[in-house]
């Protein structure tokens, strides 16, 4: 408040320096709360034939107008040479502006002097407010049947739209995708709500209000959109993923650095079950933008591993033996054929890279690869093909203890059969089926959806 007072005092001190009446009038109007009088139009021609008779006509015309309005009946009017002076007390600034406007519109008026004062009595204001509330109440009671009819129409369209949106069989004919069909139902419900709102406002003769409502809804929607941008992005990604499924249930996929069997795709995220049995929840926006590797889409999958042999060995014989070993192993496909390539020539060994193909529908990929490594190693041992080992320099102290020799244990035939079993492992697939049976959310992965 101190700063405001200082600013006002400074402005008052500067008025004589400015020497302009316009600034003084504006400041006076600001401090007194009066509205500024509209300046006389410079295009208006002042007649030279003004007389007492014309002043009397102006006064009579204004008095007849003011007498018809309760708020202006107490206003005193005097006219001299076309200059109208208004005196008295009015209830509000709006009434004051109305009186000035009427005076300026009368023919022959040159200028209007405003001597009106606004009544700021508390009792008078309360009385006026009470009268306005009474009038509003009477108008509301009179319009109550129309209000009830408009509300009934709006509720009827709301309920009808909700009933139609729940008829999923109707929308499934348009789109077999559950998510898209549900989205069409929600849009239909929204359209019925908007139609009911328009009809209700039309009954109330308030259609102009609809533009205001839509504008406010647009602003609120924009603000909410920025606030929940990630949620909206996930929702749109869910729509796109449900339209064209990049994978199916139980497909083994790798999404960025996450690998597992697909359990479900809902409206927010994709659920994977990792080989360790853990649940991995990935937002659909990440899935849509990620690099996806689907190991199940093509049932034939290639494995590889490296074997080092001594530089003095016959490389062609080692390659032939490794290929024959893979061709005789269960689980390794004959077509495409296994492949053995020389990958690199090192200081003390030659590195062979061995490739083989597995049908994942019949055999377990990891087990077949494990058996292939074991079989090639055993074949090389029997053929006397040396696989160099790292060389270490050991310093042995004189005080050494002789470690007890352990008798190597020989695996039983049953253990060997279990280790060498390369049949398909359905543990994770069973977990996915169990997850689907226990889940309450809708899975957007459907056999009817197009596949990428």
From TrEMBL:
Taxonomy, superkingdom: Bacteria
Assembly with partners or alone: Homoheptamer.
Signal sequence region: 1-24
Ranges annotated as spanning the membrane: 141-165, 177-201, 207-228
Entry-linked PANTHER family: SMALL-CONDUCTANCE MECHANOSENSITIVE CHANNEL
Function: Mechanosensitive channel that participates in the regulation of osmotic pressure changes within the cell, opening in response to stretch forces in the membrane lipid bilayer, without the need for other proteins. Contributes to normal resistance to hypoosmotic shock. Forms an ion channel of 1.0 nanosiemens conductance with a slight preference for anions.
Organism: Thiothrix nivea (strain ATCC 35100 / DSM 5205 / JP2)
Record's protein name: Small-conductance mechanosensitive channel
InterPro entries reported in the protein's UniProt record: BON_dom (IPR007055), LSM_dom_sf (IPR010920), MS_channel_C (IPR049278), MscS_archaea/bacteria_type (IPR045275), MscS_beta-dom_sf (IPR023408), MscS_channel_2nd (IPR006685), MscS_channel_C_sf (IPR011066), MscS_channel_TM-2 (IPR011014)
Region spans: Disordered: 401-452
GO cellular component: plasma membrane
Membrane topology: Multi-pass membrane protein
Polar residues: compositionally biased ranges: 435-446
Cellular compartments annotated: Cell inner membrane; Cell membrane
Keyword entries, A-Z: Cell inner membrane, Cell membrane, Ion channel, Ion transport, Membrane, Signal, Transmembrane, Transmembrane helix, Transport
GO molecular function terms noted in the UniProt entry: mechanosensitive monoatomic ion channel activity
């Amino acid at each position: 408040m101190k700063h405001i007072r200082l600013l006002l005092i400074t402005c008052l001190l500067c008025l004589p320096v400015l020497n302009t009446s316009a600034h003084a009038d504006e400041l006076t109007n600001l401090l007194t709360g009066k509205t500024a009088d509209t300046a006389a139009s410079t295009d208006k021609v002042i007649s030279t034939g003004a007389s007492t008779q014309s002043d009397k006509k102006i006064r009579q015309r204004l008095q007849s107008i003011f007498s018809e309005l309760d708020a202006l009946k107490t206003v005193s009017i005097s006219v001299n040479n076309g200059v109208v002076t208004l005196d008295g007390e009015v209830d509000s600034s709006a009434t004051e502006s109305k009186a000035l406007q009427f005076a300026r519109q009368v023919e022959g008026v040159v200028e209007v002097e405003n001597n009106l004062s606004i009544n700021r009595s508390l009792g008078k204001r309360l009385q006026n407010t009470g009268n306005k509330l009474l009038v509003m109440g009477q108008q509301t009671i009179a319009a109550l049947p129309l209000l009830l009819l408009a509300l009934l129409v709006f509720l009827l369209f709301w309920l009808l739209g909700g009933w139609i949106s729940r008829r999923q069989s109707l929308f499934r004919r348009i789109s077999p995708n559950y998510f898209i069909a549900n989205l069409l139902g929600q849009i239909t419900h929204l359209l019925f709500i908007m139609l009911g709102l328009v009809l209700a406002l039309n009954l109330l003769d308030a259609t102009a209000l609809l533009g205001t409502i839509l504008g406010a809804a647009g602003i609120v929607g924009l603000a909410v959109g920025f606030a929940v941008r990630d949620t909206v992005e996930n929702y749109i990604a869910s729509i796109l993923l449900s339209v064209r499924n990049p994978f199916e249930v139980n497909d083994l996929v790798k999404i960025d650095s996450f690998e597992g069997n697909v359990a479900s795709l809902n409206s927010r995220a994709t659920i994977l079950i990792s080989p360790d049995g853990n649940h991995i929840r990935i937002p659909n926006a990440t899935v849509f933008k990620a690099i996806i590797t689907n190991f199940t889409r093509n049932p034939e999958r290639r494995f590889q591993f490296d074997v080092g042999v001594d530089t003095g060995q016959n490389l062609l014989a080692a390659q032939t033996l490794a290929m024959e070993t893979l061709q005789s192993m269960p689980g390794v496909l004959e077509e495409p054929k296994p492949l053995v390539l020389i990958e690199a020539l090192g200081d003390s060994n030659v590195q062979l890279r061995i490739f083989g193909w597995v049908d994942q529908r019949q055999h377990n990929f990891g087990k077949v690869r494990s058996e292939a490594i074991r079989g090639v190693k055993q074949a090389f041992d029997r053929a006397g093909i040396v696989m160099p080992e790292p060389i270490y320099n050991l310093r042995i102290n004189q005080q050494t203890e002789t470690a007890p020799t352990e008798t190597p244990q020989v695996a039983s035939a049953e253990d060997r059969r279990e280790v060498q079993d390369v049949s398909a492992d359905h543990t994770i697939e069973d977990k996915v089926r169990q997850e689907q049976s226990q889940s309450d959310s809708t899975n957007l992965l459907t056999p009817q959806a197009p596949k990428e």
